[in-house]
Design brief:
The protein is an alpha+beta fold. The chain has a single domain, classed as Beta-lactamase. The chain is 31% helix and 10% strand. The strands form 3 sheets. It has a 6-stranded antiparallel β-sheet. The chain has a 3-stranded antiparallel β-sheet with strand order 4-6-5. A hairpin with a 3-residue loop joins strand 7 and strand 8. It is globular, with a radius of gyration of 21 Å. It starts with 8 loop residues before the first strand and ends with a strand. The N terminus and C terminus are likely disordered.
Length: 507
C-alpha cells in the first residue's frame, strides 16, 4: 500500500451549473475560438482556484438544495470514494475524477490520486482527460441528433447520399452492392459491416488520407449481419455528419452542442497553455515518422478485458521505454485520430467531469421533454436498443446494460452509456434520473494495465446504491410499455460483438 493519494472533493451545491440554463446563442463564442478560447479557459481555472475557499464555505450551507429532504437523506458517497482511493493505491490508474448527478445538476464530484505515475501533481475536479471513444457519444452522436432535429440528416439515409465516395471507392462490384444498403443507423449501431480497426496511421498523414483509406477497404460483412464495434464506422459517420451539416465535425460539435450547453472545457487539440491540467496517457515508443507514436487506443476493447493486452497494430503489452521517458500528453492517444490531426468522429475530444455533467444532465432533461437542444422523441430512439442485429445491446451511438459491462448490476434496463479506452466512462439511468461519470488515465504509463473493468462496475454499483439509499430505495420497475415495447426484455445478456475477429464484452 502506497502513501494515501491526495485529491479534492466537492459536495456539489445546487446551482453549480443551472438545471435548465438558457442555451447560448449559436456563434456567441466564435470570438473565443480557438486560441483566445484557451486563454479564457486558463483564466477561468485561475479564478476557480482563487475562489476555492469561498466556494468551500458555501458548499455546506447549500448542499441540501438539490433535494427537498432532510440532511440525512443526502447521498453518502463515502464507500464509493473509498473504493476509488483503493483503486489508485492498487494501481488501476494514477488518478481519476468521479462525478454523480441528476437532471438538476451535480450531486458529487471528487478527484483521486495524481495526474501521473510520478505524482507530479494531484488530480483535481478540473483535470482534463483524453475522452478516447467517449468522443463517439459526446461529440459525433450528439451532432447527429442535432442534424436530425434540424432536418439535415435521417437515420434511414444511405451513407452514400452524404459520402459519394463510399460507393465510388468500392473495390469490387459485390462490395459496392453491399455498400448501397448501408444506412446512417447502421454506423451508429456498429453493424454497417466495416472492420473494427486498421493501423492506417502507419501510412496516412491527414484526415483526408485516412478517409480515403477507409473508403478503399472492403466491408468485412454485409450491413446488419453482425455487431462489430467499429472505429472506422464512426470515422465515416463523422464525415457524413460534416457533409450533411456543411461544416467540419469539430465546428458542428462546437456550434450545435458545446456552445449551447456551455461546455467550455471540452475541445480537440488542446493548446499548450492547458498542458499542466491535462492527465498524460501512454508511454511513447520510438516515434515512426510521419505517423504518430505507438501506444494508441485500441479499438473494440473498451472494457479493459483480457483482449486489451495485445495491440492489433502489433505492439504487445508495454512499449519499450526510451532512455528519457516521455508520454503522450496533450495530444490524442488514439493513433489513427492523431494521424488525422485529432479531428475524427471516433476519438479526439478532451474534457472535464464537470463539462460532461452538463451534457448528461441535459440529456436526462431531454428524455423528459425539457431540453431545447435534444428533442425527446429523437433521444428515445437513440438510447434504446435498436434491434438491427438480434440480441445486440447497441442503441444508436450509445450502448445499454448487458452481462459484464461497465454498467454493473444495479442500473436499470433503461440505462445507457459508453466507455473510452484511456479509462473513461459515462452511464445515464433515466429511471433513477442519475448520471455516473468516471474519467481516468488508466493507460498511463501502459495499456497493459487491465484493472479498469472491475473498477468501472464497482463504481457504477456503489454510486447508484448511494443514491437509492438517500431516496429510500431503488425506483419502481417501469411498466412494460415504458421507453418502448422492448423495454421489459432489455436487461438480458447481449449477443457477443465481433471485435476485430474476436468476441468481446458489450462495451
Amino acid at each position: 500500500m502506497g502513501r494515501k493519494p491526495t485529491g479534492s472533493s466537492i459536495r456539489a451545491p445546487a446551482g453549480l451549473f443551472p438545471a435548465a440554463a438558457e442555451p447560448a446563442p449559436p456563434g456567441a463564442l466564435d470570438a473565443a475560438s480557438p486560441a483566445p478560447r484557451a486563454v479564457e479557459i486558463s483564466r477561468r481555472a485561475a479564478l476557480r482556484r482563487a475562489a476555492s475557499a469561498v466556494a468551500a464555505a458555501s458548499i455546506a450551507a447549500s448542499s441540501r438544495a438539490w433535494l427537498p429532504a432532510e440532511e440525512e437523506r443526502r447521498p453518502d458517497f463515502t464507500e464509493t470514494a473509498r473504493a476509488l482511493r483503493s483503486a489508485v493505491e492498487e494501481g488501476a490508474f494514477p488518478g481519476a475524477v468521479a462525478a454523480v448527478g441528476s437532471s438538476e445538476g451535480l450531486l458529487w464530484i471528487e478527484a483521486f490520486g495524481h495526474l501521473d505515475a510520478a505524482r507530479s501533481a494531484a488530480a483535481t475536479p478540473d483535470t482534463i482527460y483524453d475522452l478516447a471513444s467517449l468522443t463517439k457519444v459526446v461529440g459525433t452522436t450528439s451532432v447527429v441528433i442535432c442534424l436530425i432535429r434540424d432536418g439535415k440528416l435521417r437515420l434511414e439515409d444511405a451513407v452514400s447520399k452524404h459520402v459519394s465516395g463510399f460507393l465510388d471507392r468500392a473495390p469490387t462490384e459485390e462490395d459496392r452492392e453491399r455498400r448501397a444498403s448501408v444506412r446512417i443507423e447502421h454506423l451508429l449501431a456498429h453493424c454497417a459491416g466495416l472492420d473494427a480497426w486498421r493501423p492506417f496511421w502507419r501510412s496516412v498523414k491527414s484526415c483526408e488520407e485516412l478517409l480515403e483509406a477507409i473508403l478503399a477497404a472492403p466491408l468485412a460483412a454485409p450491413p446488419g449481419e453482425a455487431t462489430r464495434y467499429s472505429d472506422l464506422g464512426f470515422i465515416l459517420l463523422g464525415e457524413a455528419a460534416a457533409r450533411a451539416g456543411g461544416a467540419p465535425l469539430e465546428e458542428l460539435e462546437r456550434r450545435l452542442v458545446l456552445e449551447p450547453l456551455r461546455m467550455r472545457e471540452t475541445l480537440r487539440n488542446p493548446p499548450r497553455e492547458l498542458r499542466e491540467r491535462i492527465a498524460p496517457t501512454e508511454r511513447e515508443a520510438e516515434p515512426p515518422p510521419p505517423a504518430p507514436v505507438a501506444g494508441a487506443e485500441q479499438p473494440g476493447a473498451e472494457e479493459g478485458g483480457e483482449a486489451d493486452a495485445v495491440d492489433p497494430g502489433g505492439t504487445e503489452g508495454d512499449p519499450p521505454a526510451a532512455a528519457a521517458e516521455t508520454f503522450v500528453h496533450g495530444v490524442v492517444h488514439d493513433e489513427n485520430a492523431r494521424a488525422a490531426g485529432g479531428r475524427t468522429g471516433h476519438a479526439g475530444l478532451f474534457s472535464t467531469a464537470g463539462d460532461l455533467a452538463r451534457l448528461a444532465a441535459e440529456i436526462l432533461r431531454g428524455l423528459r421533454g425539457e431540453s431545447r437542444v435534444f428533442p425527446r422523441e429523437i433521444l428515445e430512439r437513440f438510447t434504446r436498443r435498436r434491434g438491427l442485429v438480434e440480441g445486440s445491446s447497441r442503441a444508436l451511438g450509445w450502448d445499454t446494460p448487458s452481462a459484464g459491462s461497465s454498467a454493473g448490476e444495479v442500473l436499470s434496463p433503461d440505462a445507457f452509456g459508453h466507455t473510452g479506452f484511456t479509462g473513461t466512462s459515462i452511464w445515464l439511468d433515466p429511471r433513477r434520473d442519475i448520471f455516473l461519470i468516471l474519467l481516468s488515465n488508466r493507460v498511463h504509463p501502459t495499456r497493459a494495465n487491465l484493472r479498469i473493468g472491475a473498477v468501472r462496475r464497482s463504481f457504477a454499483d456503489s454510486a447508484a446504491q448511494a443514491v437509492d439509499a438517500a431516496r429510500g430505495g431503488p425506483p419502481r420497475p417501469a411498466p412494460p410499455e415504458d421507453r418502448g415495447p422492448e423495454a421489459a426484455e432489455r436487461r438480458g445478456p447481449a449477443a457477443p460483438e465481433t471485435r476485430g475477429g474476436t468476441a468481446g464484452p458489450g462495451l
